[in-house]
TrEMBL record:
Domain of life assignment: Bacteria
Keyword DNA-binding: yes
Positions of the HTH araC/xylS-type domain: 165-267
Organism field: Micromonospora zamorensis
Keywords: DNA-binding, Transcription, Transcription regulation
Protein name: AraC family transcriptional regulator
InterPro entries: AraC_XylS_family_regulators, Homeodomain-like_sf, HTH_AraC, HTH_AraC-typ_CS
PROSITE patterns: HTH_ARAC_FAMILY_1, HTH_ARAC_FAMILY_2
Length: 284
């Protein structure tokens, strides 16, 4: 298995060439937005997205919004996967996408931070296997139930379903690129909707309120900054990301991931800025 982090710097906003995967991958969003075309299906990806691919899946990406993205990737050799008791579930989930809850996102960030601090290959392999088990069985990941309810609600009106999906994706794009300074009315104007209609459609399409989604994005960006040595003061972070004050920032972060920002800074800050230490454990 191999774990690494990627930061995409945009040079070409168009689609990349489709590439066939040669192993199973887990891609966990960290920041930014992009579009992906996986096996011919185009979807929007952001810091809350999780993607599982399998050998033979074909994927291309584009960054039409003028910003890059970053993510953590776990590559799993098929021979390693074959030895897991849940191998069939992983095979069945190839080409699958969903969203990660706050707890799973924090678990993946803590895993990366521990790897940067230094672990031997044995412990790294065991930690990765445990994380993969948690990922597979983490109930907040699946969006199938939400999608099924939406499809049933508008199955006789495919044009309405498509319009609602575009509206929800448009709101996600605006929020991800807004530095969290826009109010609800401004976001609605950006996507050509009323605040009430946008709120109702977004909840139906994503299973989340606009406020909850915005908080998820804000907290994930804050976690990225808390992981940087010598990061900005919490009061400045609160102002930068549209929180009322430092107390509000602390309350929202604690509600999302169960720890206050000061503790998370200690947990997430690596010893140095080198690559993830020995990030390619051999698993027999």
């Amino acid at each position: 298995m191999l774990i690494y982090q990627v930061r995409c710097i945009v040079e070409n906003h168009g689609w990349t060439e489709s590439v066939a995967e040669d192993r199973h991958k887990v891609i966990l969003g960290r920041s930014g937005v992009y579009r992906r075309r996986l096996n011919g299906v185009v979807e929007f990806s952001d810091a809350t997205s999780v993607l599982l691919t399998r050998p033979g899946d074909e994927m291309a990406v584009a960054h039409p919004f003028g910003c890059g993205d970053s993510y953590t990737c776990i590559e799993i050799d098929p021979t390693v996967l074959a030895d897991r008791t849940d191998a069939a579930s992983w095979v069945d989930r190839g080409g699958w996408s969903g969203t990660s809850g706050a707890a799973l996102d924090l678990a993946h960030r803590l895993l990366v931070a521990d790897f940067r601090r230094g672990l031997d290959g044995f412990e790294m392999a065991e930690r990765l296997h445990r994380f993969l088990t948690r990922l597979l069985h983490q109930s907040p990941l699946s969006t199938d139930d939400v999608g099924g309810e939406v499809d049933r609600a508008v199955r006789r009106r495919p044009a309405t379903l498509a319009a609602h999906r575009r509206l929800a994706d448009g709101a996600r794009e605006v929020l991800a690129n807004s530095s969290f300074t826009l109010g609800l009315d401004e976001v609605a104007r950006e996507v050509g909707s009323s605040p009430h209609h946008l709120s109702r459609v977004f909840q139906r399409m994503t299973g989340s309120s606009l406020t909850a989604y915005r908080n998820r994005l804000r907290v994930r960006e804050v976690l990225d900054i808390l992981a940087e040595p010598g990061g900005r003061p919490l009061g400045a972070l609160a102002s930068d990301y549209g929180f009322a004050d430092q107390a509000h920032l602390t309350r929202v972060v604690r509600e999302q991931v169960g720890h206050p920002p000061a503790r998370l800074r200690r947990l997430l800050t690596p010893v140095d800025e080198g690559p993830i230490g020995s990030a390619s454990p051999q698993v027999e």
